[in-house]
Design a protein that fits this description.
The protein is mainly alpha-helical. It has 11 helices and no strands. The chain is globular, with a radius of gyration of 19 Å. Bound molecules: pyrroloquinoline quinone. It is an enzyme of class 1 (oxidoreductase).
Length: 241
């Protein structure tokens, strides 16, 4: 059987972008959040659980860099670690997320203790870090491409939350404001690497699978939160000690 013809660069990019249909913006938890239907505990649960994702992103990026022999790529990729961990005067995204935590009524100590992180969220996020550790660096780069769809969700929160959730201190939203431009810059690089590296049809199909795997991670995190904070069935809810 002859090899299938590769998609053109434009067709490949369009197929990657079409994965937006599976983005977590369409998860019922996010839909409820965007419609102002979540209560305080449900917002707090989301912020506390997403914190685990935030702290693992720079670890994931350090794994990608550790596998990358190309200096030019490392010089650009390292920016992602600075964005989250902070650099010089900039306290960074993890600190900004901590302020978001405070704005929704979670103390710094409680957030950092990770005591609210659900096992399902932990497993999903850890799968992302492990993927970056075990895959090639180009596959790791490709897995970050859900960021193509992130500016829309950040902007949705920035425009919606002040009216929908007036009890959240507005300074807490600074994280989302900053991510819009950072995500666009990350995507430019991630997409460039992906379109350059995944060139055969089999590789292009592999890239779509990787992107789907990452979408699965984001969706699964929200499934775990739905069960715990909407259905009130956190792990072991039915066990009477
Ligand atoms: O709030 C969101 O919905 C959302 C989604 C994603 C994403 O799509 O992976 C990221 C972020 N936020 C984000 O803030 C962030 O820093 C980030 C880094 C990455 C990544 O895969 O390297 N994704 C995301």
């Amino acid at each position: 059987m002859s090899e299938q013809t590769p998609w053109s660069r434009e067709e490949f990019e369009a197929r990657l972008r079409a994965k937006e249909a599976y983005y977590h913006i369409n998860h019922p938890y996010h839909i409820a959040m965007a419609e102002g239907k979540l209560g305080k505990e449900q917002i707090q649960g989301w912020v506390a659980n997403r914190f685990y994702y935030q702290i693992k992103i720079p670890v994931k990026d350090a794994n990608i860099m550790a596998l990358c022999p190309d200096r030019d790529t490392r010089r650009r990729w390292i920016q992602r670690i600075h964005d989250h961990d902070g650099w010089g005067e900039d306290a960074g995204g993890i600190e900004a997320w901590t302020r978001l935590g405070e704005a929704v009524g979670i103390s710094r100590e409680d957030l950092w203790s990770l005591k609210s992180v659900l096992p399902g969220v932990k497993f999903a996020v850890d799968a992302y870090v492990n993927f970056a550790r075990n895959a090639t660096w180009q596959e790791g780069a490709c897995s970050s491409l859900t960021e193509m769809f992130a500016p829309t969700i950040h902007k949705q929160r920035l425009s919606g939350w002040p009216d929908l959730y007036p009890w959240i201190e507005p300074e807490g939203l600074a994280y989302f404001r900053k991510r819009v431009s950072q995500a666009n810059r990350d995507v430019e690089h991630g997409l460039e690497l992906t379109l350059d590296y995944f060139t055969t049809r089999a590789q292009q199909e592999r890239a779509l699978e990787i992107l789907q795997f990452k979408l699965d991670i984001l969706w699964t995190m929200l499934d775990a939160m739905w069960l715990a904070y909407i259905d009130h069935k956190p792990p072991y809810f039915n066990i009477k000690p």
